[in-house]
Amino acid sequence: MIVLYARKSVERENSISCETQLEYCKSVIRLEERDEKVLTFVDNGFSGGNVNRDGFQKMMKLIRQDKVSKVIVYKLDRISRSLSDFVNILQEFKAHKVEFVSSQESFDTSSPYGEMIVKILMVFAEFERTSIINRVTQAYAHRSEMGFYMGGRQPYGFELVPTVIHNIKTKKLSPILSEVEQIRYIFEVYAQESVSLRRLRDILIAENKKPLNGSDWSTAKLSALLKNPIYVRADADVYDYYERHEVQMITELSMYTGKYGAQLYGRTKHHAKDADWSDMKLVLLTHEGVVDSDIWLKCQRKLEKNKQIGNSISNHTSWLSGKVTCEKCGYTMTTIKGKIGKAGEIRRYFNCTGKSHKKICTGTKVTIYAEDLENMVYDCICEKLSDIKEMKKDTRKGDTVEVNELKLKIKEIERSEKQLMDTILSGGFQEDLLILANQKAAQLKRDRIAFQERMEELKSKNNEADQIVNLAGSWKKADDNRKKEVVMLMIYRIMISEDGNTKIIWNI
């Protein structure tokens, strides 16, 4: 039996049709073979990257039953674009005494020379496939850097509308007002301390607030929606949140002005005990976010807390997790539970991920026991909370003055920027002075962004102070989950030096 095999790739819509391929295959059947039975197998719309194809597998089944004497294809890469797969297929053909013929390359495997040529040509076929993948990957990365929407399931609350970015026609997300109002309500309700995902779903059902696309809410749908950075007005705090999770930040920090939404894409390593986000990327998009960053981040903290099983000691973590940083390398320190000393006592201690994961740091010279650090931070927070009311009153007054000063400085910078830009556009600088002028303009922009971020920090600090006053009375009775909430609110970083010295950087 002679088999004619044809495949049309999904990667190239304009490639030659399977019917035409079969006609070429028939043309190379010899006169003495015309009386043999001819069977055709077709895989229309399948990639050559693997052998999981219906027609191909049916053909191989007949070959393994020794019912096939020859296989004819249009070109070699119709069988496979993978060299390793092709060599294995070729060896199986040989084991079952099956000749392999390509109608376009004009050779067959009945001779050692033909077999050698097949292997050489398949090297180039695999190289071509790898080059295509690399080009697609590079183009995808370039589009993400420019702020293009990177695809995937269209998020609830938005529709895609045509737009032009960097002179390229594409599509951007545009809010659907009726759905966006529902999204804001979901975030605001879940941000409340007593509301769980299940409780949030029950509230939405009780209030008959169904998704406007006709489906029903579930805890899984709500969790996915709440985690999505598409909705947040991404600012420096959001940047810091993802940077701490070791996400690759595509857009520079200065762009995180609290206006635009972001997209997270890539793959997490779900097999890990804790999800590894190191292969994920975050890029700012061109649509405006719909949820304030403080509410969005509060929801993220609640969602992360839901992942924890048991208390902080039983799952090796600490209520200081995410805040402790190695001063030497800047990477987060995480807790490890292990045997310490000759007695083999099991204790939790902090370990530098720059040492254990990134291999770029030597870590601390002394062991930082989690219990000791927790006790020290606990006492520091007690002291901080004891006089928070008095601090709040004085701080508010000082902050108001500073905010006004910042506004004046920003206004002055904006005037300087306008004057400088007008002079540059009018050609008022010679070439050597133009370089200095551009440098000055960049510095003015950086100063302006710094002042704006400081203003937002002061506003956020005053809001957080109100919350901390309410926490002061319950701090000493707080469980580990409550302690973690307070730490997230009050502390920006806990820096551990190489010698084990500790420095707390407060948010307030």
Range of helix content? 40-55%
Individual helix count: 14
Averaged pLDDT: 79
**Secondary-structure content class:** alpha/beta
Distance from N terminus to C terminus (CA atoms, Å) equals 82 Å
Spatial extent as radius of gyration: 32 Å
Q: Describe the main β-sheet briefly.
A: 5 strands, mixed
User: Largest beta sheet: what is the strand line-up?
Assistant: 2-1-3-4-5
Order of helices and strands: EHEHEHEEHEEHHHHEEEHEEEHEHHHHEE
Q: List segments where confidence is low: pLDDT < 50 over at least 5 consecutive residues.
A: 269-274, 308-315
> How many strands in all?
16
Strand content: 15-25%
Q: Judging from the principal axes of the Cα atoms, what is the shape?
A: elongated
User: What's the multimeric state?
Assistant: single chain
